[in-house]
What does this fold into?
Amino acid sequence: MNASSRTAKPFLTVLEGQSVNPPPIWLMRQAGRYLPEYKALRTQAANFLDFCFRPELAIEATLQPIRRFGLDAAILFSDILTIPWALGQKVEFLEGEGPVLEPLRSADDIARLRPDGAIERLAPVYRTVTGVAAALPKETALIGFAGAPWTVAAYMVEGHGSRDFLIAKGFGMAQPDLFDRILDIVTAATIEHLSAQIVAGAEAVQLFDSWAGVLAEREFRRWVVAPTKRIAAALRDKHPGVPLIGFPRGAGGLLADYAVETGVSCVGLDTQVPLAWAMKALPPRLPVQGNLDPVALVTGGQALSEGIRTILDQTRGRPAIFNLGHGVPMTTPPAHVAELVRLVRGG
Amino acid sequence: MNASSRTAKPFLTVLEGQSVNPPPIWLMRQAGRYLPEYKALRTQAANFLDFCFRPELAIEATLQPIRRFGLDAAILFSDILTIPWALGQKVEFLEGEGPVLEPLRSADDIARLRPDGAIERLAPVYRTVTGVAAALPKETALIGFAGAPWTVAAYMVEGHGSRDFLIAKGFGMAQPDLFDRILDIVTAATIEHLSAQIVAGAEAVQLFDSWAGVLAEREFRRWVVAPTKRIAAALRDKHPGVPLIGFPRGAGGLLADYAVETGVSCVGLDTQVPLAWAMKALPPRLPVQGNLDPVALVTGGQALSEGIRTILDQTRGRPAIFNLGHGVPMTTPPAHVAELVRLVRGG
It folds into this structure.
């Protein structure tokens, strides 16, 4: 046990570069549809964006998994597509279909985005952050977040989720200047959005680059590494000491370059990252987070206990936060999450 | 220029471990719906499996891209799901929806598979191979193929395509013995299937592990590396000197372990593999193939020429086959393929 005595929040201690044993734990998408209390709460809003923008509902959704499982960090309940919405793009969430946006495909479409006032339109999100911060136990940290510019821009151009984002990638390759304009707008808005969350009470922020893995090296460097680096630098400048977790899902062999070149404080490891390789490839004191296969969580039993054991063994001695390599699946039995927390804490 | 004088087929020369300049070129999914002559041919069969099993049609589909573009290798026109079909599983290809299988979910489902006679049911495929071999120009090699056991078993259990194959992964984690039984059956059938293609005239074979990237390290080693190693050993034994190309799409940081541990003759590089990293991580004389982003091919122009240039520069001196990092997209203008071939050959 070499936890810091300076802070009572083990999650933040790890992000300061110290290893803590047992490691702090939270789970991506820990609030949501696998919890019956979330499903009940969700019926109070007409649609998903409305739910995200009603602080009394979003606060409650954020707190539900903390109450149930005593996790070490809460993450703001919101969505990465609040940014396109705030920029004036039409965004809808269709039940069972996922998000649908009126896609950007031309200079005119881009010119219609309204960066001015975008952050003001997101005021309910910051009220949620403040409300959660006031309600959390003193040992529990609060994480703010945003989608990383590539992932958000990919939805803005493609218009919906996709296995490979061929349209967005093709647009970016065929019209790099226009695509850079979108990335610039999203990057600037993201800096403001994360900064406002920090001001409102977020103690760390995470950038979700969920679709980093569909990019080849050249585009990864231009569309993932460069904007993330710009965000990391701006936040360091505005909010020194507030950690930024970067999660470039599917970065593969580019993970170490991402970690070093962006200047993030911690790197999220997706399910597919081989841990022994990552421990050698990443800077030795860089905090890491994640990697447990969500399918092991859904499965439970031996698959879960062995998965946990492997991660605890392989990250020993490095500042590490326990998490999944992707979000909690909808089909997860809540009892498996309780078991996960118990096992990680050595119960 | 250091091409072998022993063979007139540059594709095979590279697979023997010699670099050739300019590199031989073929494209994954080079036959198919982006070609108007394929679309015309396809109307002659009632459904996709019927098309695959009619040698006169499959031979013609295989030859179309060779005639149009003069590629260095032809690849048998067939599908990875002919194996489940031959094993007695119900497989259908629905227009616009992709494959639908009656999923395996229990020991009883698995017991109903009929490995005996499976290869006999695939006889039309081997007649296609023989027909293509007889028709190819003397400098053009013929590639046979199969899906790798994990990818095929994933479809067999999931029942359809998926972004993450949660059902198949969950089945494999919860019931590892049953899943191993499926993998064993598929692996044995795959060895026979590739062997029969070689006997019929295939000069090299490729294993497509299209969904290797959804697996965490532990499952990757058990479900991707181990069965591939078994196939490589069996083929080396039965057909010494016939090269096996392994394509573990999305292997990420596990690519080098895959290359070394499976014993494949050549490793396919997906779009996302960073080339400089791969050139260092892979054994120095191991032949490689692939990596060009298909989106660059669809886009054409500068994106295409720069993408090609990067790959030629970074693989210089290593035995390398030019290819995409994934299949030719349906939206590809055939003129871009002609331009690609011209640029790779220094025209």
Q: What stands out?
A: Residues 176-200 of chain A form the longest helix (25 residues).
